[in-house]
Specification:
heterodimer; A: 344 residues; mainly beta; Thrombin, subunit H; four-stranded antiparallel β-sheet; 1% helix; B: 148 residues
Amino acid sequence: MIILFSVKAILRLWKFETRRCLCATRVLNTYDLYALDFGIENSSSSLVTVGHDEQSPTVVCVYNASNASKGSIELISRATTNVSITHLRFVPYDITRFLSISTDNIHFWRIKNETDLQSISLSENQNDQFEYTDFQFDYLSKNKSNELIVYITTKTGQILEILYDERRIIQIHYLSEKMTKNFTLSTLAFTNHFAITGSHDGYVRIWSTDFSQVYIEAKYDQSISSLISSHDQTRILILTESGSLSMLNLVTKVHMNLMRTHTKSIMDIDYDDIRKQMISVGHDGTIRVWCFCTGKQLSEFISEKEIPLVVIYTPDRQIFACGFNNGKIKIFDLNTSMILNELK
Amino acid sequence: MSITGLVYSYNGSCLLSSDEEGDLCLSDVDNKYKLQKTIAKALIPTEKGSIPLSISPDGKYTVYVGPTEFIVTIVETNTLNQTLRIYISSCTYMTNDQQTITSSESALFARFTPNRHLLVATKNFKLLKFDSYSGKLLNIVRYHYSFY
């Protein structure tokens, strides 16, 4: 089952196998939703969502999703809070507890008496200089007590290890220092044998679980926005801010690009029937050349300060012209990827 | 100011462009895209996302809605010289069974068809079909909600 959300605060539940929408629910008094997580405990499952209300405090809603496959979810609890939240996740195998973070806070949440939402923040004494970017749960395998650890990534390249039950930092890994350069960690994921970090400069690094050693380092064209490990722990899905979806096989080390997309509205397209290619321009500032036999993206031009709005091939299909929102028209050569001319 | 439309002439020797305010520009491709001619406010200001210029199948002519929303103008792509203006503010069409369909409204955008007819979409959900040589009205297609 997967769940999608939109700016109108509508939750949609989808059946993954059939690609059908099972149900759609409006989240009341919320005008946008921007994070959610699905929790499973035995045969029950819960859903937690975060949005803003009109005055913009954070609204956290918890739903009973046990009957989601029959097309219904039921609101259990709703709380309005001034705590800002960028990421939240259920504690593994516990649908009464979850954790949320934002740049400057970490909150431990629990649902008491089945409906009351309560939260407590991590006491900030030694760690208030950090800016948090993402987190993951993992069980500490080193000691046999099987304690739950929260790993939190920071903007300055550290990973904080927090003992969940005691809500205290037990270790800080300084990854930036190990790589002898500064980078912003944007996300992380775990498998049984590896820790995988994604950073703002587009690097995905596969570490030993104690972060002492890097096994694989891969560079992507844009900031890494999310990493997801497969159930069998052999593959990692890699999402970048430019809208690409790739898969890295940790066993064979084979990398495969699955999809690239515009991340904002597409403004115009033009076809080349002879070479079976297409150019699209989008509000995300990219000009992309596609093969429409394979659906693969062949090349990409990025404009940082202007938005491409219209695109057209020359009749011989060797050159294309692109018009921008600032009144510029640029002429691109497809064979050399050079800008031949710029008119204003 | 945003560029709203781009069209190359049939041999690729000139580029036509339009902007948000409806100005139409002709650039000489072979001469480093030097500006040849500009017609200010030739087009109606375009709605976001609609492409305002359409080129004929042989590439010789370009059509657009303008200078007002009641006029469809055809120009030579290479020179921007006007060849035809169609006033669409009051069109009357007699069907084969002697029914008359009238249309008095404004245009959204105009397109050449492969056989050089001209289709004009109107704000009132109608399609006007013209002969692009003579400007003669060939049909008025009404959009029926009941179809959907």
